[in-house]
Amino acid sequence: MTGATGSIGRHLVRQLAAAGADFAALVRTAAKGEALGCRYVVGDFDDPGSLAAAFARLGPVDRLLLNSTGAVPVPDGAPQPMVRRQNGAIDAARAAGVGRVVKISALGPRPGGKLSLGAHWDIERHLKASGVPWSILRPSGFMQNFTTGDGGYVRDGALVGTFGAGRVAYVDAADVAACAAVLLTGERGAGETHVLTGREALTHREIAAKLGLGFRDVPAAEAAAELRARGLPAGFVADLVWLWEDMAAGGLSEVTGAVAELTGREPRTFDAWLAAGQE
Question: Is 72 exposed, middle or buried (0-12, 13-18, 19+ CB in 10 A)?
């Protein structure tokens, strides 16, 4: 599995270990692997040769979880490095004879999409054309984003953004991990795409109240100016504000039953995630 130290990966490592599954994590350094406490191999998405060597050390690999960090700020007009990295991993998996790639994508990928949406679209197309059997998970935004700062930004004790009254069906990363575990260890899922959400769609005002924060809905121009003042590239800021406006318009409000369908249990609510310690 890749992305073992991220929001999904750390849950998946524990879930697979608890189930007694035979798995290994691909990590960039031995120190990261030791910290995980599971079998690991060292490799780097930016070094395709290291991926080939990692597959060779592991021997036959039945399934590969493909997951890595999403969109990052890049100079305006520059390509997202995630496409090159994940496509290279797919090529290495094909060369190694991997039985299936389970890809963590994003909700609503589309050609030329903003932030990671265009990148995930390109990667999905490459995976489907690779000849390697595949499964795709498209999760909504993670509840964990509110503890990492990626769900918005907090200033003076308030959640601030261009959110309006739009609802978002945030999902717990642990539930995404549970869905991935099903696809990695079971027989179902080949050639399937699953859209993963929580079981409720909340406004950001409601989320702020649950977090014990105030809420400030600000105009897009004001939000963009503040983000640029923090040093983020103008193009990245424009894409981020577009995402907020899409949320405000209800673009992420759909609630699906995919988590329950795959795992046999309902996904956690935002309140249940808070009660569990926000991990």
Answer: exposed
What's residue 150's pLDDT?
56
Local confidence band at 60 (pLDDT 50, 70, 90 cut-offs): very high
Cβ neighbours of residue 52 closer than 8 Å, sequence gap 6 or more: 92, 95, 96
Domains and CATH numbers, the chain: 9-275 (3.40.50.720)
For 108-137, letters b (16+ CB in 10 Å) and e give: bbeeebbbbbbbbbbbbeebeeeebebbbb
**Tokens 């953004």 -> residue:** 161
Dist. CA 244–CA 113, nearest whole Å: 14
Confidence at residue 70, expressed as pLDDT on a 0 to 100 scale: 67
The token duo for 201 is 């769609």
Query: What's the rounded Cα separation, in Å, for the pair 217 and 197?
Result: 24
Which pair of tokens denotes residue 116?
């990671």
- CA quadruple 176, 181, 184, 190: dihedral sign: negative
Alpha carbon separation from 275 to 52, 139, 218, 271 (Å, rounded): 42, 22, 29, 6
Radius of gyration of the chain (CA): 19
pTM score of the predicted model: 0.92
Instruction: List alpha helices for 97-233, DSSP H.
Output: 116-129, 145-148, 173-185, 204-211, 220-229
